[in-house]
Structure formats: structure tokens, C-alpha cells
Amino acid sequence: MKIHVLNSKELVNKTVSEHLIKFVREHKTGVLGLATGSTPIGIYEALVKDHKENNTDYSQIRTINLDEYVNLDQNHPESYYSFMHRNLFNHINVKPQNIHLPNGNEKDLEMACQSYNDVLKNNQPDIQILGIGANGHIGFNEPGTSFDSSVHIIELQEQTRLDNARFFDSMDDVPKKAITMGIKNIMDAKRIILIAFGENKSEAVYQMVKGKVTENLPASILQKHNNVEIYLDESAASKL
Ligand code: GLP
After folding, report:
1. Is 67 a catalytic residue?
2. Which of 73, 84, 114, 212 is deepest in the core (most CB within 10 A)?
3. Is residue 217 part of a domain?
4. What is the number of structural domains in the chain?
């Protein structure tokens, strides 16, 4: 793991977005594994700004997202489909057929998992962007998820639902389940960039980097990946 502690969120956003832009320019048909949550928003803003100013070309880039809520309409503003279009896809020239998100509205959710696993086989991320949950989850792989997991349906923990409640009108509106890439899918990415900001991530960050590798702290598996960069602001790094 290469750990980079930078002295502001802005500097993290600038550094990571420069890596992504460089990748896109050098690998025109590459696969970007993308994440949602508040953490990557500044990075997506920087990609949009660069695309406007420099015309960085995404016409053959493929994207693949980590996860999606189950039973939340695709057009709901908080679906990850809406989030990604609002924050990134609507503002760059990525082709709709090259955008991949799991479908949490499929009647047969087992089928939805299987078909996303198939999509992943042909679209293995060259770079996977990750955030981290306060409980150490990556994607929506909550503590206790098997390290051998592929795409699956997960029951969200109370803590995760509480953390995400700020985006919904009430706690009752926060989805209870999600469809997510499994730990094994995430570990198949060639390069992983994990970003964390703020004091409330500091314990999870500490356990991920210094703790033992355990399914109770899903992000700890990243210690076993040979190409991981962790970008932190000072408060997320405060327990290291
Ligand atoms: C969400 C997402 C994760 C994200 C995490 C942290 O539930 N499924 O991919 O990394 O929780 O979110 P935030 O960046 O808003 O702190």
C-alpha cells in the first residue's frame, strides 16, 4: 500500500484527478471502476472541468460502478445511476453503451448479480476508485462479507443507513439493501485508488492500514493487493 497524506481535500482531489486524466489520455479504451458517495464528488468535478477545457476524450472509455441500491427507482435523485449521470456522465463524452452499473430494480436479483459478474469479466477495471465506509466497508461490502464474494445482494447495516440518511427525506426512505461488486471483483482491479476524508473515517483507515486482515473490516483485504494507493487528508490519517 502506498499511503499519501496530503494537507487538504482539494490537494487530494487535484492529485487523484490528474492520475485519472493521465490514464484516460494514455489508454483511450481503458476501463474506469467508479465509486459514489460524497468522497469522489470533487474528483468528478475536476474531470468535468478538464473535459470542458482540454477535450479529454472518453468516447471509447468504459466505466463500471461498484454498487447500486436495491428497489430504488433509477430516476430517484439518490440512485447511483442518477448520481453518476448528474456528477459525471452527463458532462463528458462517454458513450451510454460503455457505462455499466448494477441493476437493483431487476425482479430476479440473482440474475442481476450474475449478469453484472458477466459484465465485469469483459470490463475488468484498470483503475478502481474506492471510498470507505466508517465501518470499513468498500463498495457495499459490509463487515462479515466473504473475501471470496463476487457480485451479491447485501443487507445494509444500520450504521451505513444512518450515514446515508442525510441524502434522503427520512430514515424510512433509506434503502435497506444494495447490489454490490464483491470483494473478489474489487481485488481483480489492476490498480486501486482509495480516498478518505475526515475524522469519522480515521478509525476505519487505521484498521485498514495497520490492523489485521479480517472480513470484519472489509477494506483490510487491500493490504494483499499489489497496486493500491491510499489518498488521505490529515484528519482521515490522524490515527496512523
Ligand atoms: C457508500 C458507498 C461506498 C462509499 C461509502 C462512503 O455507502 N456505497 O462506495 O465509499 O459509503 O461514503 P462517503 O464517501 O459519502 O463517506
Report:
1. yes
2. 84
3. no
4. 1
Instruction: Note whether residue 24 is domain-resident.
Output: yes
Contact 80, 88 (CB under 8 A): no
ipTM of the prediction greater than 0.85, yes or no: yes
Residue nearest to atom 3 of ligand 1 (CA): 139
Is 100 annotated in the active site?
no
Average of pLDDT values for 165-187?
A: 96
Q: Which domain holds residue 170?
A: 18-129+138-195
C-beta neighbour count of 111 within 10 angstroms: 11
When pLDDT is averaged across residues 64-93 and rounded to a whole number, the result is: 98
Q: Cα separation of 154 and 104, whole Å? A: 11
**Residues lining ligand 1, Cβ inside 6 A:** 35-39, 66-67, 131-133, 139-140, 160, 164
Given this model, what pLDDT does residue 187 score? 98
Residue 204 lies in a domain: no
Question: What CATH code is carried by the domain that includes residue 153?
Answer: 3.40.50.1360
pLDDT bucket at 61, cuts 50 / 70 / 90: very high
Measured in Å, residue 131 CA sits from the centre of ligand 1 at 6
Average pLDDT, the chain: 97
Is 223 within a domain? Answer: no
**Catalytic annotation present for 203:** no
Task: Verify whether residue 135 is a known catalytic residue.
Answer: yes
